[in-house]
Design a protein that fits this description.
alpha/beta; GP_PDE_dom; phosphoric diester hydrolase activity; two-stranded antiparallel ribbon; 9 helices; TIM Barrel; 20% strand; 9-stranded mixed beta sheet; Glycerophosphoryl diester phosphodiesterase
């Protein structure tokens, strides 16, 4: 269990946090209301998703920049009006949801949101303000600049994780190399390895905890790796295989 001080209400959870990555993608219905509901029904209260904006400014929960890979539609979401996107079906079955719909449909869920496009930032923050959902969302992105801009606009009420540059600097700090770190982040959300380089080890976890940061690792889909990371003291795991992570955490007595 993490010994770090809770720096934002979003992180107020007893024990390691289980995240359903895109709701759990193993069933091929990623980022759909049906899959999110399945995750909630088996006990998940933290769900990772992604946000894009349509041409007319609607915020959709969808990973790719285009509809082509997982739906029966086609085209770049940013170039399409919502009226076109809403007719696409994931795996030919399920509609693409609006993020606002998810906040309303799952009021007990906390969302880890990857802002996939710069133009999504302002509409996203405006939605959080309207919905008073600041305590229910943590924002991340590969782009450190995008996260920094969102944090600057929203202030401390918005929970954020490090982007790629912040993670790199934290890894350097864990090796004793001086590197600047953004103080406003509450978590480092990282892969276990990147390009063959080990990111998460005991030194990395200690360096994060020493700075009051939680460590959330993605995307971990096998029980052995889940156990190993929990043994290191990570504070959260994101998985496509939501049943496997639940079983691991139940075995360890940390499933809440």
């Amino acid at each position: 269990m993490s010994t770090t001080r809770i720096r934002h209400p979003y992180l107020d959870h007893p024990g390691p946090i289980p995240f359903a990555h895109r709701g759990g993608t193993a069933d091929g219905l990623e980022n759909t209301v049906l899959q999110f509901r399945r995750a909630v029904d088996v006990g998940y209260r933290y769900i990772e998703t992604d946000v894009h904006t349509t041409r007319d400014g609607r915020l959709v929960a969808f990973h790719d920049a285009t509809l082509d890979r997982v739906t029966d539609g086609a085209g770049r979401i940013g170039d399409l009006p919502w009226d076109d996107v809403r007719h696409a079906r994931v795996a030919g079955r399920e509609p693409v949801p609006l993020f606002e719909e998810l906040l309303e449909t799952f009021p007990e869920v906390r969302w880890n949101v990857d802002l996939k496009a710069e133009q999504a930032t302002l509409p996203f923050l405006e939605l959080l303000e309207r919905a008073d959902a600041w305590d229910r969302v943590c924002v991340g992105s590969f782009s450190e600049a995008r996260v920094v801009r969102a944090q600057r606009l929203a202030g401390p009420r918005l929970a954020t994780s490090y982007g790629t540059r912040g993670v790199l600097n934290l890894r350097l700090r864990s090796w004793g190399v001086p590197a600047a770190l953004r103080r406003s982040a509450v978590a480092a959300q990282v892969p276990e390895t990147q390009s063959g380089i080990q990111v998460v080890d005991s030194r990395f976890v200690r360096a994060a905890h020493a700075r009051g940061l939680q460590v959330h690792v993605w995307t971990i889909n096998d029980a052995r790796s889940m156990h190993r990371l929990l043994d290191l003291g990570v504070d959260g795991i994101m998985t496509d295989h939501i049943d496997t992570l639940r079983e691991v955490m139940e075995d360890r007595g940390v499933w809440v």
